[in-house]
Amino acid sequence: MFLRQKSLYKYIFISILTCIILTIYTQQVKAQLFDSDQASSKTKWRQINEARFQLIFPQEFEKAAPLLASQINSMLDNASKDLGINPRKISIIVQENHIEQNGFAQLAPRKVELFSTPGPASDNTNWLPNLVQHELRHVAQFDKLTGKIKGSFFEQLALALYGLHLPAWYFEGDAVSIETQFSNGGRGRSSAWMVPLKANMVAGKNYSFDKNILGSFKDITPSYYLTGYLMNSYLSNNFGYPVKEKIMDNMRKNLLRPFNFNVALKKETDMNSKALYTQSMKAYKGTWEMHIKPEHEDIISPKNDRYFSHYYLPQTNGSGEIFTLVESPDRIPHLAKIEQNSSKKLFQLGYQLRPYFHLNDKHIVWDEIRRDARFGKQTYNIIRIYDIKTKKSKDLSKNSRFYSPVIDSNSENVYTAHVDQTNVSSLVKINLETLDVQEVVQMPADFQLLQPALHPKNNKIVAIVLSQKGNNLIEIDLESKSWEPLFAWSNQEFERPIYAGESVIFKAQKDQKDNIFWLDLGNGSVSQVTFSSLGNYSPSSYDGNILYYNSYKFNGQKVGKLRLDSIKFHPVKIDENNPAIMDRQLNAIYSLENQPQNQDYQIKKYNPLSHLFNFHSLSISANNFESFDNYRPGIFWIANDLLNTSQVKLGYEYDLEREKSSYSAEVTYQKYYPKFTVSYENRGLIGQAKVGNNGTQTINFDYREHVYMLDMQIPMVKYRGNVIYSYGLNFGTSYQKRYDLSMDNLRNFRYEIAFPLNYQVYLNRNWRRSQMDLIPKWGQNINFIYRHVPFTSGMTGNIWVLKSNFYFPGFFRNHGFQARLSYQNGFGQFANSNELPMVGGWAHFKSEKVDNTLLLNYRFPIAYPDWSIGPLGYIKRFHGYLFSDYQNLEDSGFSPASYGVGLSMDFNLMRYKLPDFGLGGKLSFINHPSARGKVVPSFSFSYSY
Fold this sequence. Notes:
By secondary structure, the protein is α+β, with helices and mostly antiparallel strands. The protein is built from 12 helices and 47 strands.
């Protein structure tokens, strides 16, 4: 899986949680939590339906779909043959209108989802085929381990057992091995992908197994993909590829066995996971240390950073100042100038697919992600420009798919790569005065254009091209609009080519290291410019005399400087075919010559409603364990269509406290701008009645009711630079009909409540958070609610509620203030309703009627220990807060009703990457005369993604 979506880990966690609860209740049922985003309602879907797969894609992808379909059968074989299985038919969904490179495979419902648009990052192979091969390996893993648990009831149970038994580092590392084995590229051949772990080892940062797979706030750690790939490679190097099937077979036969993976691994290798990690790192560290040489570089990056920092893409212009894109865990990504070993922030950036910018003497250009306000799988990549003199910025495009812009020296035109909805790539030109867009040259169908760079004379462009033939650098003549390759086609991973006079400087991989090289366009000779043992990247040169570049260190990518006139050029030959790194079982490049070519397939329309009743799982929670409050055991049968536009849920619950049962049915439809939910519930309840002459006695009575509900939501989210806007409108109503009262002659009992109306309008504006920020640095959030009962005879009243939430910077970095001010006003039926966030310890004193509250707190990080508690837990962060809460401000004399202190920690359990758990404690000091106790302790437990 590539840049794996957090939603899949929600599936797995909810499944595991269900599996644990099932052990208690001894029922074979399970839960489901599904992705909340949809494609645009305007998307017209098509399908190719074959015996082994169903390919679903937007109409715009119709020309490209047959080629992909022709490759899937062989990919299914490649993904599964070493496991000795033939995967069941799988639905594969191509989300071509979503430009964030990603993909995931899941059960409940069973599908693979691909975000297929290639992005701006350099690579050693084509994006989409490699993505499909990776995800189909997960399908094979599903079917090998839990494939016999299937049908309309047990998919989530199968996913639960998969996630419970198979560690993320193993199933992702295994999939990286397969993507590398069955392509001419893959991450297993990329030295740039492996450099974070290599740099740590060489610097003596020998982090623990837990830290390397679970991550850290304060240190760079390799992903669990990389750690898992190297551990998988050690397995296959020392025990052969058949060991993977043996491990999975052993696990499949013992699905109820605790610590199943470690037991199976121990049986086949005499090692558990931690021992395998130790042996793997020992072997690779020895290999890498053999090739490390002393380096003498002129590093000019700032030296006072508290945590690791990347200073990406160093560039200069006629001013001689050095500009760079700064990323660190304690700061929002921003453009900065380096001045006297410190950095001066220019402006903050919005979300980017990859860190990127380009500049000349007057302007800076870069690209940013945008999304459709309603549909999260309709995204764009736009071009922005910043005027260095006026310090103002603006958009150059809207709803575009442009990448890696470069601005000419005269600030007349911006050139940028473009990928259309059939994945056809082209070079386009944007006129800065008129903003007209003109296509310069269109590439052949399977050629992806990357990272264009202009010649100083603005007459030529050098760029990277990826294709099925291989990868290359090409030079484009802007006058004739012709182009030619500069090398033989190979799996070389080129990056950031630039001109230096009539030569080209670029990054390439040689001897499993990344360095800067020089290509003389006159005679075709190649010379090596830098000789890093770790990696040098992103070369730039304003005048062809001084070269700036990124030099990778254990604490980030730093800025290196080199005078080109001091270099002695010695011709070298760069590697045309890079072998797999560390995996000795892959001795040769996978041949693409005999791969299936474009075939004729019958393409039909696809209607998402054809899977409206796609029942797949049973759940024991009505809300998918989003909340543990008032949990009631029950059973729910769930259906989801493959495109996440509908859900059907049928259920039964039993209230243990009231000893009453309820039956429910719910349909959610979310294809269009409003999301609609229609539900019915038949439930048993207990009411109370006053008896006696003075009504001093209370007696309980039973009754049942029919409840029909309709809810409509219009949720909207937008990105604007480093600010995230979310706003929307919600509307709801219901009809209640009561019957089967256990008391006769009950007065003032309402048998019918007809159509109370509820409205909600909200508007939120928050800054993007850095990794270490506990709350946004700035934020304004307003939420207005109104309820009334206009259609029920004898019932009057309404209530309005205004909630606000504001964020402000704290005294130090990553600290923050939060202020929540809320008002409510209700009468009649709603006179005693409380819909405000209440003060701390409110339940521990006798409060007068609350009309408003003000909740103030100050949040701050304390420490980032990265502590392992054996295999049970891994603590990443401690943080605290101080609070002071007020109610009924006009009467309080601004004296707090309560105040106190809280302490929390963020941690992972049992070496699961997600969710992130939180455990907190709070001491509330009650400042009210009726308080039963002045000090009230409380505790909290939460999880997030």
